[in-house]
């Protein structure tokens, strides 16, 4: 039987986790997380790690599997996830993958372009420049070194800008020169499912989720991570805003409003990314799971 990867994507807080569990239970399969924020053991509330009952409902992989002190990038994930999927397919023709990190999803389903290894000190220096001079400084630097990358990558995402710059500086060649836009051959067929809703509904769900995170102890989680705030893993929505609160720069009310605003912006970027992929079949987030299963079966046959 053909080996199948069911990939579930969509904006944050849309209900991807719940759907992934229903599909995994139906196909008696296991779940690969492609959410890059959920890899870290020290972060759970602010990254919306599935609750214990959700983790118990179906076996999950790549949930809190590494430490914030470990440099773990999308290339590492591609290698590890492909290896895990291969092992899971030896037991069952179906594997479910879920996550809103577009580049990480693409790494598994279509593969990444090859980039040479560069001196790790370059990234360290760029991180310092980001902290001291801000994202605009790095954006201008990238614009000078690689205009094509400047015009095509997620320019508001510091991690993407720093990644492009470290390749430009470390190889003395444009980051864009390493992009081939050719897909890798995979041993499985991917069926991509997208969940969506009206923007107002997505934004309401995001705002409510942030409130629940605060109620569940996000402040204590972030406070415990203050000594590690300069690590790349913590340069993420929900943490960087509360660092400003603990520094005394923002009120708690304003920090929470910034988390909501930045999460809404993140959701918008997610949708922009995924809408470029014509292979994704979109469903309203309230669609009955049986309808989605019928579609998946039609694609298998």
Structure in a nutshell:
The protein has 301 residues and is an alpha/beta fold. Helices cover 50% and strands 10% of the residues. Strands 3-2-4-1-5-6 form a six-stranded parallel β-sheet, with helices on both faces.
Helices, strands, pairings?
Layout: E1 4-9, H1 16-26, E2 31-33, H2 52-57, E3 60-61, H3 74-89, E4 94-98, H4 102-109, H5 120-133, H6 135-145, H7 147-152, H8 158-171, E5 189-196, H9 199-215, H10 218-224, H11 240-246, H12 252-274, E6 280-284, H13 289-300
Parallel strand pairs: 1-4, 1-5, 2-3, 2-4, 5-6
Helix pairs in contact: 3-4, 5-6, 5-8, 6-8, 9-12, 11-12
Number of domains: 2
Number of strands: 6
SS-derived structural category = alpha/beta
The helix/strand order is: EHEHEHEHHHHHEHHHHEH
Subunit structure: Monomer.
Region (Interaction with substrate tRNA): 35-38, 159-163
Binding site for ATP: 10-17
Site (Interaction with substrate tRNA): 101, 123
Overview of the molecule:
This protein is an alpha/beta fold. The protein contains 13 helices and 6 strands. The longest helix has 23 residues, at 252-274. It is globular. Keywords: ATP-binding, Magnesium, Nucleotide-binding, Transferase, tRNA processing. Pfam families: IPPT. ATP binds at residues 10-17. Residues 35-38, 159-163 are annotated as: Interaction with substrate tRNA.
Any descriptors?
301 residues; alpha/beta; Rossmann fold; Histone, subunit A; 2 domains; six-stranded parallel sheet; 50% helix; globular
